[in-house]
């Protein structure tokens, strides 16, 4: 067996294992949800006033939280890597990210579903960044992207766990790929760098929380 075929087989096995783990987590989550529902209701009754007050105080905080410090450095392969600090704090307010689309930083406690999910409308950066933290690759496009490229990339995303896709009107280039701390522009859906980026960064070594869920989040 060639090295390329061996790598492809290993990748398929790894994705299938992630799918099995995801299904197991969903089953456990359903059981736990049923088991603790009474406790949750009781907690809401007792602490409801305090929770509402805390959320109100948080929403009244002036200004956006700072997401990151550092800068992009472009490698020989054309992938830009963030050199500097990418915060990982869960926040409920909006975040001012230094790049668009963002590649990390403080983010919403709820991740955007990223199990091959394709969104035809813009999603919130704060939720998408949480998906990147879980090892997802985020495919984005703006109005300059061709319909053919959008459709082809959407099909690839739908077939790949730990990926998501959405429009980002303010991004610099028509087609972009993002992972935690990494980003690159591609010329088309047929650009070989699309496959290379997926191969490297879907649940790649850059992932802060490998194996974390990409379902049961925000859809």
UniProtKB/TrEMBL annotation:
Keywords tagged on the record: Membrane, Transmembrane, Transmembrane helix
Transmembrane segments: 31-52
Naturally occurring in which organism (per UniProt): Streptomyces acidicola
Biased composition (Basic and acidic residues): 13-23
Family matches, as InterPro entries: DUF3105
Region Disordered, annotated ranges: 1-23
Keyword field contains Transmembrane helix: yes
Pfam family, one: DUF3105
The protein's name in its UniProt record: DUF3105 domain-containing protein
Biased composition (Low complexity): 1-10
